[in-house]
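[Automated response] Your request has been received and processed.

Submitted sequence:
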Amino acid sequence: MSQVVGRARIVVEADEFCGLQWVYPLREGTRTWEPPVSVPRERNSFMRLLLTSAGIKNTSIRDALVDLLGKPIAESNALVIPTAVYPLGGPGMAWRLIAGQARTPLCEVGWKSLGVLELTALPSLEEEHWVPAVQETDALLVCGGDVLYLSHWMRQSGLAQLLSSLQAVYVGVSSGSFVLAPHVGEEFISWRPPTGGDEALGMVDFAMFPHLDHPDLPDNSMANAERWAAGMPTPAYAIDDQTAIKVTDRTLEVVSEGHWRLFTP
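Generated structure:
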């Protein structure tokens, strides 16, 4: 089963009595659709998530970020995580992302301050040298690249174990977003971790197919998204670069000025 929705907003609310999410009808005419998707509260009690395909690409996504922050971007501090880009783009691409010269707006949107958190360095450091900064930041900006490489180093660094307790807004781009899914699918495997498989962090219980119908990525067509989703055990969103998924403790909202599709098993 699947549903196509363009330039729409969906909201999912939590039921008080179980881990699943029950969806309550919204007003007619609001162009909404209520999917059978859950957000695991115990694993994500405090984190606020903005899961994008290509960063802060439009006003709607920027407004969603400000809403999650609870204050202007210019008053917010951020840490950027470039780790995922190295297997695919190398150090040059990492620099362009941090310098705000990539096509995925993230670091250049006007933060009060910006630091770099390189996950591969963290296992060699005492926690006192990086954990307080993560706990105090307003936003974690997680760049795209190789999703399973990112998942591996999130676990190895210890960051994965901290995520569910943080007050920061988690802002993902591409693989920085769908690394939170339970599985990514064989189609997105390039680097394979020592454990094998396609398991990611499982902090949300839906999967993501980014860059839907991107003109430079012919493999990211709607037809291929549908084939990918058919092999996923969870609900799965295919989103274009003008779309993001906003998740808080009790709601899931699709924020879009483009097009997207939700597939359900």
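Summary generated for your ticket: Residues 39-263 form a domain with the Rossmann fold fold (CATH 3.40.50.880). The chain has a mean pLDDT of 85.
If you did not submit this request, please reply to this message.
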